[in-house]
Amino acid sequence: MIRVLLADDQPLIRSAFRALLELEEDIEVVAEAANGQQAVDLARVHLPDVALVDIRMPGVDGIEATARIAADPALSDVRVVILTNYGLDEYVFHALRAGAAGFLVKDIVPDDFLHAVRVAARGDALLAPSITRRLIDRFVARPPTTVVGAGLDELTGREREAVALAAQGLSNDEIAARMVITPVTAKTHINRAMTKLHARDRAQLVVLAYESGLVTAPGPPR
């Protein structure tokens, strides 16, 4: 059973998400919060697998709530997915750096939303398809970060290759096929890279890969 915490200052939005989630046999909504501080407090009480957090809430906003959850060792297994009405802006970068496992816009279709919850619950990173391309473009427009780049020196060649493929959106199975290794070995490479680069999860690993210049986005399709 996937345990979900909902955090949104609009009761109607929370009710809609709850109704959708509770139709699923493998998902349970364990708590609702109306602001970021409540989200953090309820996460500590209920230890959800996934926290769906609105980015704009009164008092403590979604980004600060994400940072507090990510910084709490007792909540290391909680995956925060940011929900927002807005497209791509600086919130994306702040949310991912704060420790969010993913970022979804609220106009996502129900099936994709439910899939996203399951993806986050199993520890994979996710981003709404509508913002992924622009997110990558924004990373490429920024110069590599020297401090981040220095950390890549600790990675083995195979770990660097696995990180680069993960940053392109490939799953462990797809990385394994590309590198001609087993999915377990691919996952090991990714996990070791996260440890060495102090990344909370795959989402932050992807951020580091682009910020360091390890990965650059391809040009727009012709």
What can you tell me about this protein's structure?
The chain is built from eleven helices and six strands. By secondary structure, the protein is of the alpha/beta class. A six-stranded parallel beta sheet has the order 2-1-3-4-5-6, sandwiched between helices. Helix 3 links the parallel strand 3 and strand 4. The chain is globular.
Terminal Cα span:
44 Å
Radius of gyration: 17 Å
Largest sheet: 6 strands, parallel
Tell me the overall shape.
globular
As a percent range, the share of helical residues equals 40-55%
Report the mean per-residue pLDDT as an integer.
82
Oligomer: single chain
Number of strands: 6
Low-confidence stretches: none
- Largest sheet, order of strands side by side? 2-1-3-4-5-6
Question: Secondary-structure blueprint of this entry?
Answer:
Layout: E1 2-7, H1 11-21, E2 27-33, H2 36-46, E3 50-54, H3 62-71, E4 79-84, H4 90-98, E5 102-105, H5 110-121, E6 126-127, H6 129-141, H7 146-151, H8 157-167, H9 172-179, H10 183-196, H11 202-212
Parallel strand pairs: 1-2, 1-3, 3-4, 4-5, 5-6
Helix pairs in contact: 2-3, 3-4, 8-10, 8-11, 9-10
